[in-house]
């Protein structure tokens, strides 16, 4: 296949993507006590540890008759897991013993169905693989009670399948990556309006399977608000719904499939509401005295239906760090010095000239009234220019012995302060002198999501346990404070132990019963979600 391929140990295509600016070394030294020098590099493909494939000849032949089948080391290692910090630690160390026995890539929804039936009959575990960007262990090669495991690569289910201009509804193959979807839609004058930070690699089907939220979710909605219909191949047959704008025909089966993370079946096509390409985009910054003042202003906007399409409010630490690491020179760092101790809110509006001008004017007036200090377009443009840089820089940070990982949650406005301080305390207590950054984004009338990034000097002896302890403490704190275990990263294997605390036992049983009906052999993505 001639598809773009991500490096197996990090983010991006080989040699591509932004790097840490030179002055970052000084910052890492003073803030985290690490030297800033490269202390480790990922192993080469030849050094990766990989067990021989357990796929027998008969099964190999059967699956190869249904779909493209690859079992070379590069394919197996590249589909071994996702892109969390823990995933990258293991991939960088070449720890791929458990890699899928083969990568199977069907070319149609019917071929997906046939592969699932064959795997159910043979008792082969199946991990659906979209863009491979899961950060919650959603792609962990867990075999459950099965000896053989395949990665079901959905990359060949790509492109626009049909387009209804009048309804602004596009059917896309489940394996279509977001940039490719936007490229194809752009030629017709439309866009997805879905830009998670993992945009470069994530797929339409993967986003629906994890109920993802893009950076402009405040304006364009989360993925589940824009999925009008979908097709999902399960071992027991196809689940599908009508592409109608609304229905009262019982509980929304489409919503049961969204967020099902491959444990029921494979989303082969997604019917999405799409948005006209915006004639105007405007991003700008506002400074606030502190985080609380900023989110009170955002709350006002959300409740008065004036929230911008993109709203991202950084706390004091994140504001300081983003200016300190800004790659665009002395000017940004000078602004950072002026704004030390303050919080920056980035707002973005996208749409027609009139709509952007009008909505921006109303929101800017309200923000000024709430104590916001307008910073002009520079901070907004800087955010837009670097909106996908973070995961590239993470590779550089891992080379330099820095532990860096993120986690996210959401709660009501009334509970936001308690949740923020509980999670911050948990991370600070479980990591050595960390930097804990937080931003509020994805705002709703009733509340907002909080997104934390933790940096610390990596424990060179056992970096995985170091982060596991911190994650455990932070998730316990989230649950104890009434936040959701995940606002958009999904559950996977990593959050599964806490799902019952959120859904209750009966909720878990309902999900298990649904899985049992769609996947009686228990082959679909074992060990995830429930
Ligand atoms: C750097 C970084 C930034 C991120 N930023 C965001 C963000 O801003 N917002 C956000 O919501 N998430 C974000 N994520 C998380 C991740 O990108 C999302 O969960 C995304 O939706 C996953 O899409 P994917 O195609 O990569 O799916 P994958 O990672 O391939 O799969 C995710 C899960 O869904 C299952 N799956 C995949 N495709 C299908 C399918 N077609 N049918 C059924 N099951 C399927 C997989 O088995 C797996 O359990 C980020 C991740 C990274 C690494």
Entry keywords:
about 525 residues; alpha+beta; Alpha-Beta Plaits; GMP Synthetase, Chain A, domain 3; 7-stranded antiparallel sheet; 19 helices; binds flavin-adenine dinucleotide
Q: Spatial order of the strands in the main sheet? A: 15-12-14-13-17-18-16
Helix percentage range? 25-40%
Number of helices: 19
Unreliably modeled segments? none
Instruction: Give the overall pLDDT as a whole number.
Output: 96
Could you state the oligomeric state of the chains shown?
A: single chain
Note the gap between the termini. Answer: 34 Å
**Global structural class:** alpha+beta
Measured by DSSP, the beta-strand proportion falls in 15-25%
CATH class of the domain at 160-276: Alpha Beta
Per DSSP E runs of 2 or more residues, the count of β-strands stands at: 18
Concise description?
By secondary structure, the chain is of the alpha+beta class.
What does this structure look like?
The protein is an alpha+beta fold. Among the domains are: 160-276, Uridine Diphospho-n-acetylenolpyruvylglucosamine Reductase, domain 3 (2-Layer Sandwich); 280-385, 2-Layer Sandwich (Alpha-Beta Plaits), CATH 3.30.70.3450; 390-494, 2-Layer Sandwich (GMP Synthetase, Chain A, domain 3), CATH 3.30.300.330. Helices cover 37% and strands 21% of the residues. It has helices at residues 24-32, 57-64, 73-78, 85-92, 109-122, 178-186, 204-210, 217-220, 223-226, 253-257, 291-303, 316-324, 330-338, 353-369, 378-385, 390-399, 416-430, 463-481, 496-518, and strands at residues 68-70, 102-105, 124-129, 148-153, 160-164, 169-173, 190-191, 227-234, 237-240, 266-273, 275-276, 280-288, 310-314, 343-351, 373-376, 402-412, 435-443, 447-457. The strands form 4 sheets. Strands 15-12-14-13-17-18-16 form a 7-stranded antiparallel sheet, sandwiched between helices. It has a 5-stranded antiparallel sheet with strand order 5-6-10-8-9. A hairpin with a 3-residue loop joins strand 17 (435-443) and strand 18 (447-457). Helix 12 runs antiparallel to helix 13 and helix 17 (416-430) packs antiparallel against helix 18 (463-481). The longest helix is centred in the last third of the chain and has 23 residues, at 496-518. It binds flavin-adenine dinucleotide. Flavin-adenine dinucleotide binds at residues 82-83, 127-135, 138-139, 154, 174, 196-198, 201-203, 205-207, 209-210, 212-213, 261-262, 266-267, 391, 488-490, 492, 525, 528.
